[in-house]
Design a protein that fits this description.
Helices cover 15% and strands 32% of the residues. It has 263 residues and is of the alpha/beta class. It has one domain: Glucose Oxidase, domain 1 (3-Layer(bba) Sandwich), CATH 3.50.30.
Length: 263
């Protein structure tokens, strides 16, 4: 039996209704782009807290049925998560203010894994974006851009993933990410909906000024960090749904991201 998802009634530019469309999910591979939150989740070294799951109830009730409930506590920025623009821009959007069009959109995957394997401090350059476009076509306005470094293979080994595992010290980190010139091209010229990465930050590990965060936040472009399974996505053609916990006034939040990849 085919699984069909109703997308609902759409409206034309004049407001006239058109027939509801059906999305046949059997025609897509659904790829999970998120790491699970748990005891081994990687957090930024200076984070004062980590993920905690406290058992409130677990077992048979007096009425005879099973019941389980937990309380959770976690920093916004750990594991697979969203950076809201306000994270690096005073007037940027908070987590619940980000338009859904920036979280649900077609995606492209720029693969710099070979360069990152040779240089763990590699920063994707403008040339990497232009090379991608030469091979796969121009990146359209409103596209979610994902940078594949191959770094999720190190998860959850903190030292291998971050480059250093000194508690409370973020001065020795080493991992690849976007470079400033690539970020400006994607955000300011291409109008990317969001920037995603399979490392701990959309800025490379040794960054001290977080220019990529600042460039993105200045245009209300969110970041998706600590993604995984980007190797299962094509350079273009996937559709990403990246929905964070909707935290009012938040600077980010845990993110469950998935991709629909045409079979």
């Amino acid at each position: 039996m085919r699984t069909l998802l109703t997308l609902g009634i759409l409206l034309t530019a004049t407001g006239a209704p058109v027939r509801a469309q059906l999305l046949d999910l059997s025609q897509y591979a659904i790829v999970d782009l998120s790491h699970a939150l748990g005891p081994s989740t990687v957090f930024w070294p200076t984070s004062p807290a980590k993920f905690e799951l406290q058992r409130l109830a677990y077992g048979r009730t007096e009425a005879g049925f099973f019941y389980a409930a937990y309380a959770l506590c976690t920093p916004e920025h750990g594991g697979t998560h969203l950076d809201a623009p306000i994270h690096f821009h005073e007037e940027g959007q908070t987590t619940e203010q980000i338009p859904l069009e920036r979280l649900i959109a077609p995606a492209v995957v720029i693969d710099v894994s070979a360069r990152a394997a040779a240089d763990r401090d590699y920063r994707a350059a403008r040339g990497d974006v232009l090379e991608f476009e030469k091979r796969h076509g121009a990146i359209a306005h409103g596209t979610i851009v994902l940078l594949r470094t191959g770094w999720s293979r190190h998860w959850p080994n903190v030292k291998a993933y971050l480059g250093d595992d000194t508690p409370g010290d973020a001065s020795k980190l080493s991992f690849p990410s976007y470079g400033e010139d690539a970020a400006r091209l994607l955000v300011e010229e291409r109008g990317a909906a969001a920037l995603g990465i399979d490392t701990a930050s959309i800025d490379y590990g040794r960054s001290a000024d977080f220019q990529v965060h600042r460039i993105a936040a200045g245009r209300n472009v969110p970041g998706f960090e600590n993604l995984t399974n980007l190797d299962r996505l094509p350079p273009r053609g996937a559709f990403v749904i990246a929905l964070p916990m909707k935290i009012e006034g938040g600077s980010g939040g845990p993110l469950r991201a998935v991709a629909l990849v045409p079979r």
